[in-house]
Amino acid sequence: MIKHAAIVLLSGGMDSCVCAAIAHQDYRLAFLHVNYGQRTEARELRSFNEIADFYHAEMRLSVSLEHLRIIGGSALTDLSIPVPETGSDPQSEIRNPKSAIPITYVPFRNAHLLSIATSWAEVIGAKKIFIGAVEEDSSGYPDCRETFYQAFNKVIEMGTKPETRVEIVTPLIHLKKSEIVKKGTELGAPLHLTWSCYQNSERACGRCESCALRLKGFQEAGVKDPIPYEPRGQMR
């Protein structure tokens, strides 16, 4: 059976890696990585390339969205805004005082990523765009909601060639982090190659929200997280 190509938005984090493992079952993989001026840009790019090598990806593309760093407005892209740290409860992250959205939210980032993926999909004939967005057990970013992806699928339908048939797929959207860990383990995803920390590139801090959610997921799944953490950052 001939497998169609699918684009996987691969940040280098755990969720996108598990998403890649799911796509790998039925599709030829085309991995897309986007640097947008985030603090751990180089470390994430390294994970992207290592995961792409692991899956022997037929195609890979890494692009830059420098304007998101220039626009700022997020602790991930603006070095003057500190990355919030959590206690043992990942939901305790410091929020933007103007809204309930975390200050680590990069304004409308996923729309930019999906636009690039759609353009590439039209060129290479990919049928699916996989993205590891999580709504159930996540930071609460507005561009990680299921309704956002449903709407974007309509945008793709209206804004591409009549013969184009590209669909965004969000296989993790309703999973808890522990379920994502279990799914990745079940599929043999290279979780040891992933990187989730918002602020460190050598040893994960264990204190930013992304680390806290990740550690909580591994803990609840009963699986040891294979990446290195600062000793004082490890959750109990």
What features would you highlight for this structure?
single chain, 236 residues, alpha/beta, Rossmann fold, five-stranded parallel sheet, 7 helices, 11% strand
Task: Explain the overall architecture.
- The protein has 236 residues and is of the alpha/beta class.
- The chain has a single domain, classed as Rossmann fold (3-Layer(aba) Sandwich), CATH 3.40.50.
- Helix content is 36%, strand content 11%.
- The chain is built from seven helices and five strands; from the N terminus they run E-H-E-H-E-H-H-E-H-E-H-H.
- It has helices at 14-24, 41-54, 66-71, 109-124, 146-159, 177-186, 209-221; strands at 5-9, 28-35, 59-64, 128-130, 167-169.
- Strands 3-2-1-4-5 form a five-stranded parallel sheet, with helices on both faces.
- It is globular and about 55 Å long.
Helix and strand topology:
Elements: E1 5-9, H1 14-24, E2 28-35, H2 41-54, E3 59-64, H3 66-71, H4 109-124, E4 128-130, H5 146-159, E5 167-169, H6 177-186, H7 209-221
Parallel strand pairs: 1-2, 1-4, 2-3, 4-5
Helix pairs in contact: 1-6, 6-7
